[in-house]
Amino acid sequence: MPHRMLVLSAILIGGGASLLGLVAADEPAAPAADITPPGATEMIPPPASESPRWALVERRNLGGNTTVGGTVVPLEEITFTAQMPGNVEMIAGNEGDFFKRGATLAVLDEAALRAQRQAALAAIANAQATVRNAEVQYQREREDPSPKQGGNMMSQMMPVPFFGGDRETGVTREATLHQYRTQIEQAQGTLVTAQAQLREVDAKLEDIKSIAPFDGYITHKHVNAGDTVQPGQPLLSFADMNHLQVQSDVPTRLSAALSPGFVTKVKLDDPSQTVVMARVAQVFPMADPTRHTVRVKLDLQEGAPAKAGMYAEVLIPQPESDMGSAPVIPVAALVYRGGLPMVYVLDDRDKPRLHLLRLGEQYGDTVSVLTGLQGGERVLLNPSDAN
Q1: What contacts 98, CB < 8 A, 6 or more positions away?
Q2: Residue range 159-202, pLDDT digits in tens
Q3: Is 177 exposed, middle or buried (0-12, 13-18, 19+ CB in 10 A)?
Q4: d(Cα 304, Cα 101) in Å, to the nearest integer?
Q5: pLDDT for residue 215
Q6: What is the pLDDT of residue 148?
Q7: What pLDDT, in 10s, does the model give residues 241-281?
Q8: 265 has which bridge partners?
Q9: How far is CA 258 from the centre of its chain?
Q10: Which among 164, 144, 145, 146 has a CA at the least distance from the CA of 154?
Q11: Half-sphere exposure of 180 (CA within 13 A, CB side)
Q12: Are 377 and 345 spatial neighbours (Cβ–Cβ below 8 Å)?
């Protein structure tokens, strides 16, 4: 009997504990303290039918730095064009093939030029023969004057002194010598013309070959072997891919800090968003009258993981200027299309619209916006996840 009483007591004690646990679970938990830091981006709840999250675009005071987009370009790049009509006889390789300086990259058919060269050589030989003949005739006339031709009947019937004797003989002889000297000069002019034609043909023979002026790669083939080309038609593009630059069109108000030799940071649009150093190589002396920008070229440091055509961002310090406030958005709201930064903005009808941006400096998880937003808009966070 005592044993049963002990078992009953244990059951009652266990049931009471369970009941107390249920009562404690039904009590509401104390509200958690608001840990949102002051000045953080306000989160806008999405519509009930949508899962994406939206953030309100704020305006904040910026520091003295801004970012301008640019493009990675080769330090040296040329496009070979046809200098004469003809057929393409040879193209040395394909896109991406490397060639040393002095290598022949393209050749046009030279059969027509070879025929022109032979004609020019024949013209030179004929002109030289004409010059020699004119010189011989002139020398003969000087040493052995030709007998006077013609004369009228009166001069033959009357005595020579009656008509002045030989007073006109010197004038006539000088005119004859002048005629022979003129023939020599004309023959020499013909010779010079023929020699100039030969030099022109030889220059064209050199132009039928496209020679690499530096070590580089074929970046684009415009024609293939066997194609017929006309003067001025592109053959191929060739570039030095081992030395790269960033080319950027900087607004004139931001270009004051840039001068040749100035070193700044450049962020590349590679998977790692690599930041490298670059030195200003050239600042164009005149601004674009339409876009009001100044073109700047910066030499990238050696070994930078960049490729020609890649998008890049140049950090431009503005320590002495008051940049004021600018829109700031979370980095998570950015989406890139063709290497350009964009963001989805919610319009008045709650429809997302894609806006192209020009970004400024990044501050932790946020980035300033130079153009594309005014502040107060709602932007989509993590657009890749929403898609």
Answers
A1: 215, 216, 217
A2: 544 444 444 466 776 777 777 788 888 888 888 888 888 888 88
A3: middle
A4: 24
A5: 92
A6: 56
A7: 888 999 999 988 888 878 899 988 898 988 888 889 999 99
A8: 277
A9: 21
A10: 164
A11: 18
A12: yes
